[in-house]
């Protein structure tokens, strides 16, 4: 049963969910956000690596789960499948107390300027499969970024913006997220290649 309010802004729904006494688990997202659950789940998971702050390695767990959900989108699944243990996993205070409240303000900024543009395209199966590939690439790139470099932030931000574009039904926002994420991937590859070249020259 849907718990969403007709006509409510996504930022309001997200904030209401965070302030409620309902469990803040990945499994609960499917009940609250229904058809947008994949995009919302990936948005929340990639929020943590998108924030340039020490996370104690928890980002790799979130990136791995985000990559799994993205692969499920590629397969054409319409509802989230996760092992029971992961379904019951709390997002944690790092996401619910710091990352999400921080990004809600940014989401409200996007909501002021964003509007539904080709929203129907983003709901088609082929589009969701392609966006699943995009999410997979960005999650993997963030996970493979050199430790302590902060480079994982760029593909993570790209994934967050793409997910937000899906939720708001704005293909322009999705395009911006793809460009930001792709730029981050290129930067990681370029700096990684430079680091390998430097090590080889020293040896």
Q: Which percent range fits the helix content? A: over 70%
Q: What share of residues are in beta strands?
A: under 5%
H/I helix tally: 10
- Globally, the shape reads globular
- Average per-residue pLDDT, rounded, comes to 79
Q: Mind describing the biggest β-sheet?
A: none
Rg estimate, integer Å: 17 Å
N-to-C span: 62 Å
Describe it for me?
The structure is a single chain. The chain has one domain (10-202). 72% of the residues lie in helices and 0% in strands. It is built from ten helices and no strands. The chain has helices at residues 10-19, 26-33, 37-50, 58-74, 84-87, 93-113, 119-122, 125-144, 153-168, 171-202. Helix 8 (125-144) packs parallel to helix 10.
Write the layout of secondary structure elements.
Layout lengths: L9 H10 L6 H8 L3 H14 L7 H17 L9 H4 L5 H21 L5 H4 L2 H20 L8 H16 L2 H32 L1
Helix pairs in contact: 1-6, 2-3, 3-4, 3-6, 3-9, 4-8, 8-9, 8-10, 9-10
Gist of the model:
The protein is mostly helical and 203 residues long.
Jot down its keywords.
72% helix, single chain, mainly alpha, 203 residues
